[in-house]
Structure formats: C-alpha cells, structure tokens
C-alpha cells in the first residue's frame, strides 16, 4: 500500500465539520435563535383560487389577545417589485399585499402579528376575509387548446428533418408520459426572523443564498444593499424551495412597521402552499431507429403549467440534447397558464421528470428492437454535443453503464418479462441513463491567514445539509496545503460578498473555484510576507468572474447509470424496490462520504417520485388536497432498500478545480430505471407517475381482459 | 389554536363527571389523532381530560376464556401481549401494521376506535364536509376519492374508517364497554359505528360524554388461526387502501368456521358476513374463496377512482384464505 504524503484533504472521506453541533442540538436553526422582545407573524392564505379580496375584517381581530398588527392589501406599505435578481424576476407572491387580486389558492392575503405564535395563529384563523370569487381553472392535462411556446432560451431546439427521419425509421416509438405535481418537502420548514439593529436590517433565515435573499429584500423595500444583512447558518434541506418567499417579505414588513423583531415560522401546510413546487408534466416522446438501434429521430415535447402571473418552464425536454445522437432532433417545451401558484425549481428541474419520459422511451425502443437497453445507449453515444457540436469537457456515460452492469449483475438478466417470480412477487430489473449540467457562476471569497497559524475562509455559500461547509474546508486545505483542522469556513452571511447560490448543482463548483483561487493568492502573499503575520492576519480576496470568462465553451455535464430491481404483486398492485445502484462520472469527488449521501438521497427521491409522490388538486376549490405528510407520501424507511452509489474516475483536464455538480444527478433517471424494472417484472409499461397500486391493478385487469 | 383547559383524571367516575354537560370537552388518550385535528382546526375543544392515568391499562383473561383489553392499553402493549399473539394473531398483526412505533407507543385502544377518518376534505376546514360541517356537502364524491368507500357509503359521505385494529376486532366479535355519569353499558362493535345515511357526523353509538373503558373479545377457537394483511402504496406508515382480517377453521375438508373483515372500504371496519355465509360448509379452495368475496362485494358501489378496490379486495380475500387453508393442510 502506498501512503500519500501531505494533508488529508480532497478525496478523503470526512464527517461534517458541524456534524457534532447538529446531532447534539448545539447548531441553531433559523427559528431557534433567541431574540428579546420577539413578535410573531402568521400569514393568512387565500381560500379561493381566483378573484378579489373585497374586505378584510381586521377590526375584530385587532382586539384579540396579544394582537399587534394586521397587514393586508388595504393598508400594507408599498413595495418595489420591478427588478431582476441574480435568478431572474421576483416570484409574484413577493408583491405582498400590493393589490387585491387573488391569482391562486394559497395567495397571501393578510399577516397577523401578535405577542405569541399561538395568539397570532388564533387571530389569523379568526380573520374574516371576504372575496369576490371568480371561476377558476386548475385542470392540467395534455391536449388543452390554450398551450403556448414560452419565450425562453431553452424552449425549442432542433436539427435535421424530423418527419423524414421518422418516416425512414424501421422502428418508431411514440409514447406519452405524465408526471404529477410534486413538492420539495424539506425537513426544516421555512422560518425567518427580521429586525432592525443600529440602522441595519438583520434577517436570520434558512435559505439557499444569503446574498440572493438580501439583494431581493433590499430591492423590495428600497434599501441600500449594504444596510441589509441576511444570515443562514444551518439549513435543514431546501431543494430549490428556499429562495425568497412571502414569509421573509412579511417579516421585514412587520419588523419595519412595528420596530421590533418579528418571526414567521411556516407550518407544513403553508410550505406546501407558498414555497413553490414542481409543475406536473405531460410529455410525448417519438424515437425513430434503424434496425441496428441507431437513432434517426429524437423528439421530446413537454408541457408544464405556470401561474397566470409569470411563466416558469419545467425544462423536461433538455436532457436529450446532451444524451443521444440522432440525425434529427426536436425538443420543445410548452406552457399553459392556470389559476395555480407559480412553480419553481425543484431538485433536478427539467431532468427529473424529463428523464422519466425519455429513459422510459429508450427502454420501449430497446424492447421493440429486441436489443439490450445498455447496448442501445452505446449505439447512440455522441462524440460531441448532439445539437451544439461542442466537445464534452469529459463524458463517461458508457463507463458508468459498464461498471454498473458489472456490479449489478446485468449480464445474467433474462430480458423476457415476467420471467422471475418469488412467492407472490414478480421480480424485474431496469436501467436508465442520468445527466445533469455542471455549471459555475461568478463568486467571491476571502481567505485569511490568522496570526495563530490557522486560516479563515469567508464566502456567502449555503450548506443546505449537503456538506458544502465541509467540502469547502477540504478545498481550502488542499489549496493551502494544510490539514483541514487548521481551516475554519464561514458561510451563510451576506456580508461576505457576492457568491452563487446552492442551486443548479453549481454551488460547490462555483465556490470551490473562488476559495481555491483566493487560497492560492494568499499563499503568494504569505511567501512575500516571509512568515510575518500581523494580528489582524493577512487576507486575500478573489472574484472568479474573469476566471470563468476564460473557460473554454464546452458541454459540461455529470453523467450516471441507474439500476433498479423491483418486486411487484400484481394482485394487490404493490411495488417494492429491492435494490438500487447508481454509478456516476461526476468529476473530482471532494468528500466521498457526503457525496455518496447526496447521491443516495437523490436516488431515494427518485424512488419516491416513482412510487409515491403526488400532490392532488381539488378541482372544486383549486387548492391542494391533503397538504401534509399524511397525504403527500414520500418514501418511508421501509421503502428504501439496499442502495449503493459510487463513482468512476472522471478527470476534467481543462478545469481549474475539476469539480462537477452532484446535487441533482442522483434523482435523474431513477424513476425511469424503476418503471423499466416494473415493465420487466410484469410485462406492463407504465407511463404515468407515480406507479400507484390502482394503476398496476387496472393494467393487470386490462391485460387479463385482452387475453381472456 | 384555541386555548383550552387541561385536566388529568385519576378515576373513572371523576373522568366522566369532568366531561358531563360540556359538549366541547374531549377525552385525551395518546392524542395521536386528536392533537393533529386540533392543530388543523377540525377539533376545537375548550377542555381536554387526560385519561391515561386511569386504571384501564390491563389485558386480562375473562371467566369464559376471552380477553378483556383496558381502554388505555397502548397499541404497542396490545400487539406485544402473548395471549393476543397466541389466540388472536390477526389482532396483533393489524395493530403492528398501523402507524409507526412512536405512535403505537402513545395510541390507546379506546382512542384507536374513536379516531376520525383521514379523508382530506374532512381534515381541511376550508372545504365542505358533511361529517365535519353537516349539510355543507361532500366534495369527495365528485372530487378526489381514490381511497374512499365502496361499501355502506351514501352520497352524503364516502369516507373510510382508518383503523387497522378495528378490522381485527370486528372479525372477532369485540364488545365495547363504556361508562357515563348515568352508569355503564356495552355495545357490540358490529353496532358501535352508526350507518352513514344522511348523518355522517354521527359516528358511534356511544352516549354523549361516554368514556370507553374496555374492549372484550369473546373466546373463539377460529381466531387462533387468523391473519391480517394490509395493502398500501408504501411499505410502512400509511393508511390502508384495502385490508382484511381472516380466520379459518377447517374440519373434515370443509370450512367449519370462517371470519372475514375488511378495512379501508367503508365508514367502519366491515364485517363480511355474506362472504362468511357463502363459505361456511364449503371446501376451502380458491373458487369458493373468490365466490365468497364476490358475494360480499356484490353490494359495492364504486366511484370513478376507487373501482380498483373490487379486484383488490377479491384478490386479498383469496390470497389470505388460501394461505390459511394451506397452513391447515400441513
């Protein structure tokens, strides 16, 4: 065995640096920070799906015990909502109480502030809001006449003559798929405290980007950006839902008007209502292939919904632009405006639902061709970006399939459906490809050499529970060539300067570039200082905008192969996943321990998406029915079998840190692998998620009727 | 959330006296359903009378050889009791199929029987519901009803009773004992839950203010060869979409006695007496099991989204009885 000299940094498994604080309760989450003289806010959400607020009966509520204030569209201070943040235009719900229109169920219509949360809640529930109700439409389905192509850079991409290639194809798969409305369901509900302190607005929050939130709050309240400080020390999951939401606006509004600290902590039902969700999708895939499996045509059209306020596109059709070569490509998105809340990014936005459709369709094509599904993918492996023509920074999808097939025992698979039975269970296996972009955005960071020989890193990064703080500790230690225990990483504070958010699988990559670059610069300055460090330390600070601008334009993505084995009882409709394996080519793995957890977490979510998750809209009220974890099911422990995630080497030669994103890719393809396994087990292809027992039973009845 | 008074009762007469004449007061057992409903605003009691300290926490063999289960026995204690496991195995299995370990440690037998439906219209106070708000309507009939009733429902309410435990108790002819300020009484579980009709808000035959004190299981040889199976879309911690308790006694190649009860198909645990009648005296085989299930389900009325419960329950009955019959052969 060879031992590597030098510090144990990147590539060595490290437990979380704040792990002990978290398991002992010493780590304080946003709603746990004590404040003197704290008041509590409670949002009142619209009970109707469309119309106007006619009157708010706040007089009676103001007289209730402990009530300090009631805000609504009749009395709220004006906000400035005409701006664009680093992530685009503001979410429409941030225009809190700025007009009397109700565009969807759950729209915030009032805020009650009281001395205790119980008083605030009781008063909020007692508040009578009168509406002028209008008919609403929340019915999402394919074939609506009122869909349109959004003005989005990613909306449509094409090459070649699709119809001609389909006509020339020996085999054509033409199939439609649906995925339901899904919710982020972070363990820690959203919570915020706002207060004015010495002329500065202080916000204690749980979010994916403290600078992002600070920037939008400064815009909304017309404040000097330097007078707003947002901190977000520990975060119990986010998944795209913890950006700027109405509760933060409400807290700042109340703290400003009342001149005392105000806290809002959302209930689970409120998180379902006002923190975003993934749109349902209706997708159609057409694949045309030669008898040898080579794709002539790849078409993927995806319909999703948005609110009547702002277009949000669930970009389900983008992944085919990266995954497969074909003579003709057509991938396009459509939207329909409904009286629904505005959807938002949710883990692997686009790729998660899109991969269910595309990777199911590939499996259908393999069935039709009588070809192994992995071989089919190998036949269509591109050498450059199928649409862009750009080289890949690195790509080893087939290496993932090879390693996965070896470890999963794919070679022993009998491809015939219904070929394995164990008691009441039919067994089957399936596979699917995974990919997700690996981007980076400009960020700033500082690294300080302290007089005591330690180092302090400051960056407005967010550790949403993934282990980002630990990863950045390792990155800094590597760049400084010191042991990680000499490095303290401070994150989640907007005073540390601009940095990218924890989102789009871009956080660790973007921050690593900034931290390593600052550390390198510091080492240069330390060499000049000749070991003489003043009491305030020596600080180097960098901005990666220039570095990123110099990076060659390439297709930069992570890749993976998903494998699943399922058991299906077709007499009851029950599906249980027996094992899953994911092999990923995702650049340099900074911390194998937390990286594995993140990928396994994504795969579990894929399982949950395949079998459980589905938000139900009540057609009559237009609201979500059963917005709680008793009704919105995620996988329970008993549903989660042996799951393995592992990596293959994936060097990125031209990249300064070689780090790719791993936040999203774990979920991509997982639901398709499970659905493909169900098809193998039962002979029935399911095209609608989740794979509910009633759907399995109905399919079985229909199959029996056909054969009988 | 409304402010409420919390009182702890130490004896039964004191407990019922505390509730007497106060329709807004509620007994508090494990609180695993009531407290959730209070948070949701469905229940707004002005007073909670905690009954967990009452001397009702024992499981005893009765003089005739049955079991008397105190009302405050927890679900965990019930499922772990050796006599329950030996003589009424389907009951122990049913209890263990419900909720989670933490909830079963808190939930009581009396509370389990009185838990409310999980129909999402019932638990959302912003929506109409005849059970919660009589006369407001039942949106489930035309709305979401994947997991709603196919037996014994009406156009006024199609909610299902969520209990697993109750299904096994129904199969075993349980009798509920209660106490009021006027004295005690008993009601068979078969009569405990009222028909839905046009009064879905009236759920049980208990007099106002009554406290359940015990559930008694009469002795039954057939119960010792019994099984409970619950079908749900995830492997744990979910309410049934269909469940069945079955007990089978075969003598001389014929069904001497059979017990069948269904869960998640009706507003109450559904004793399948028609199926039992069809099967008794027949050879224990698949065709007879299916015929029995069909006989019971002939009365079913399905809606758009819950028709799958017919094949589900039929398959479940056949599978359970087949397993029990095969074990008899060995």
TrEMBL record, chain A:
Residues 24-135 form the Aldehyde oxidase/xanthine dehydrogenase a/b hammerhead domain. It comes from the Bacteria. Gene3D superfamilies: Aldehyde oxidase/xanthine dehydrogenase, a/b hammerhead, Aldehyde oxidase/xanthine dehydrogenase, molybdopterin binding domain. Keywords: Molybdenum, Oxidoreductase. It holds the Pfam family MoCoBD_2. SMART domains: Ald_Xan_dh_C (SM01008). PANTHER family: ALDEHYDE OXIDASE 1-RELATED, XANTHINE DEHYDROGENASE. This is Xanthine dehydrogenase family protein molybdopterin-binding subunit.
UniProtKB/TrEMBL annotation, chain B:
Pfam families: CO_deh_flav_C, FAD_binding_5. Transmembrane segments: none annotated. The keyword Nucleotidyltransferase does not apply. Keywords: Oxidoreductase. Residues 1-222 form the FAD-binding PCMH-type domain. SMART domains: CO_deh_flav_C. PROSITE patterns: FAD_PCMH (PS51387). The keyword Methyltransferase does not apply. This is Xanthine dehydrogenase family protein subunit M. It comes from Streptomyces spirodelae.
